[in-house]
Structures are given as structure tokens and as C-alpha cells.
Amino acid sequence: MTAPHPDDLREAARRIAGAVPDPEIPVLTIADLGVLRDVRVGPSGIEIDITPTYCGCPAMSMIATEIEIALEKAGLGRPKVATVLSPAWTTDWMTDEGRDKLRAYGIAPPPKGAGRRALFGVDEVACPHCGSTDTTAIAEFGSTACKALWRCHACREPFDYFKCH
Amino acid sequence: MTSIRVTETPLVTYVLRRADDALVLGHRLSEWCGKAPMMEEEMALANMGLDLIGQARALYTYAGEAEAAGHDEDALAYRRDERAYRNLLLVEQPNGDFAVTMVRQLLYAAYADPYWRAMMSSRDATLAAIAAKAEKEMAYHLRHSAEWVVRLGDGTPESHERTARALTMLWPYTGELFETDSVDDSLIEAGIAVDPASLRDTWRATVADVLGRATLTMPADGYMQKGGRSGRHSEHLGHLLTELQYMQRTIPGATW
């Protein structure tokens, strides 16, 4: 058996690592979220960079562990997983597929083109259930650091909004 | 467990000051867990505390690397005594009622938001990377606390009264935000630090805007408290550290 070409190895590692679900929003993979930053084949094995959505995101160490388990299970050995801060993650890195998955899951996806937020809220957020923009914020923070809690006046449903960041 | 001694170069001191601000304020916010006035605010305060503790972790890790004496984030957070802490007096002030917590958050976030945005152009690549994360988080903290200060100030006579009292009580701690010493001067010169004097107009304009909407009067700058940056703290920090450091001091090196 010949050793796999480094490019093939890297692609396999990227596919497997990228498929790891986000522990807090399991409908999204870390590739959908843009949390998987880089996959390299280094001298002592596979090196993977991930980036936090928020500084204090409690899911980072769990994501790193899940990546290690997934790659080991696939027979690619234990990767070296590092957390990088720069460039800072923005919701613009979320894939279109990720946005569709979020909406289908009942979470309003972040708008593209993260700009500076105004001092007082001016976001227009479409309800992920009925599409109406007749919505208001209930609370700036929802069940995780990356979400806010909103309510739709058209269909009367509350929903999570993945904050533009 | 015995305390550590940190060899402080200007960079180590500068980074520790920011790390201590973030850890102490993050810890204060975490003290609201289980006590917030409503479920949504319970989530908000814990989430903001988490942002700050996340910033503190990155900053402590960097301070440890800059010192190069083998101190990791945990050693720096858990094994320095009160006098070695370098945080602003503002962030160690007790939570008080919800108005005190929100006014404290507003006064700090209105400073930290433009501070981290300016630090994104620091010549120090690590500080610039941390700044790019923290800047977005502090913008959100500012928005959240500004909305609450308006709601409380322009609310009932009682909420107005309490918010005005909180403002009077915390104002003397705002002078320290713009203080500089030789540590700052050398790093400002090197393009690593931001001159806080350049942030003062922005800070004042933001605070004035929020207080105006909140029907509150901006206090006059009178006597200002200082000392936090050199380790001279109010009586509150020692109590906070007792709780924060208890486990690591009792069972050194304990892990989950």
C-alpha cells in the first residue's frame, strides 16, 4: 500500500472535520458555521485550526475533542487542533447552505454583510416560520451567546435569531 | 497555595491590566446567576460574563507568554493576590441593584467598545487579534446596557431615582479609564497601546446620548478615585478574589 498523497489526506481530513456538528446548534456543521479555518498536513500529522464565534464560546473545547475523535475513527490519526483568533470570525463566513439549514430549523439566520451595529437596535429580522418582517426583539440574548430572542407579530411565534456578528 | 510573583515588563503589566478588567467584571456579572430580575436578563448577564471571561483567558495566556516564566492563564487568574491585580476600580464595584450593574456596564462598555476598536490597529499582532473579537462583543454589551439605562432612567420614579443614585456612586471611578502612567506611555510610543485620551470624547458623547434619552443628568467631574492600575483597590476586590480563587487555592491544580 502506498501512502496517500498529502492533498488527498488533507481533503479527507477537511471533509471529516468539517462534518462535525456544532454542539449547541447541531443542525449546522462547523464547516457551515465557518468555525473550521484551516486543515494542513504537517510533519507530525494533520493540523487543524478552528476559530471561536465569541471569545467565551464554551463549545470550543468540545468541538476540538469531537474533531480529534472523528479523525481518529476515520483512521487518520490524532490531529493537532489549535484555536486561532485572527482574522476574527464573522457571520459572513456562514455558508448559504448553513443559512438555509438554520431557517429550516426555526432560527432566523444572520443577514449578510455584518456592519457596525447601531447603539440602539435597528435590525430587521424576518420570521423563520412565516417570513414576515413584522417582528420585535424580546431579549438581546437567547439560549446561547450567538442568539437573541425575537417574536413574530404575524404568526405569533417566538423564535431565535442568530445575531449578526 | 502559594501566590506567584509576576515579573512585570511594560507589556506584561499592560496586558494584565486588561485581563484583570475583563475577569473581574466577568466574575461580577456571573454573580447574577440565579438572581437576575427575569429569565432573559439571567441569560444576558451570564452571556456577557462569558464574553469577558473569554477575553480574559486570551489576554492572560498572552501575558504569560510575554512574561515567559511558565505562568499560564490559570496561574495568573488564581494565584495572584489582591495587590497584584491591576484592574480598574470601576469593574470591582459590587453589583448593587440592577441599576448599579447596568450603569457600571454602560460606563465600562462605552469605553471598551472604542478602546478595542482602536486596538485593532495595534502593532502587536496578538493584541490586535484579541481586539477584533472583543470589539464586536463590547459593541453588543454597550447596546444592551444603553437600552436598559434608558428604560430604567425614563421608567418609574423609583427606577429613575435608583439609576440616578447608581450614576452618582459610580462616576468617581470613571477618571481612571483615561489615566496613563509610564507603562502606557512607552507602549503608546511603540504603537502597541492606544492613548486613552483619544477615546475620551467618544466616551463622553456616548454616555451623554444615553443619559439624555434616560432623562438623567451627567454628573460633573469632581474628585476621582484611582489606584486600581497599581494594585491599590477598594475593599471589594479582596472579597471577590476570595470566592474566585477559593478552589484553586484549596485544591491546587484541580481540573474538571
Automatic annotation (TrEMBL), chain A:
Stretches that traverse the bilayer: none
Residue ranges constituting the MIP18 family-like domain according to the UniProt record: 19-74
Top-rank taxon, per record: Bacteria
InterPro entries in alphabetical order: Fe-S_Maturation_MIP18, FSCA_dom_sf, MIP18-like, PaaD-like, Zn_ribbon_PaaD
Pfam families according to UniProt: FeS_assembly_P, Zn_ribbon_PaaD
PaaD zinc beta ribbon domain segment(s): 120-163
Name of this protein: 1,2-phenylacetyl-CoA epoxidase, subunit D
Source organism of the structure: Rhodoplanes serenus
Gene: paaD
From TrEMBL, chain B:
Pfam family, one: PaaA_PaaC
GO cellular component: cytosol
Residues making up the signal peptide according to the UniProt record: none
Any GO BP annotation: phenylacetate catabolic process
PANTHER family assigned to the protein according to its UniProt record, in alphabetical order: 1,2-PHENYLACETYL-COA EPOXIDASE, SUBUNIT C (PTHR30458:SF0), PHENYLACETIC ACID DEGRADATION PROTEIN PAA (PTHR30458)
Official protein name in the record: 1,2-phenylacetyl-CoA epoxidase, subunit C
Source species taxonomy: Bacteria, Pseudomonadati, Pseudomonadota, Alphaproteobacteria, Hyphomicrobiales
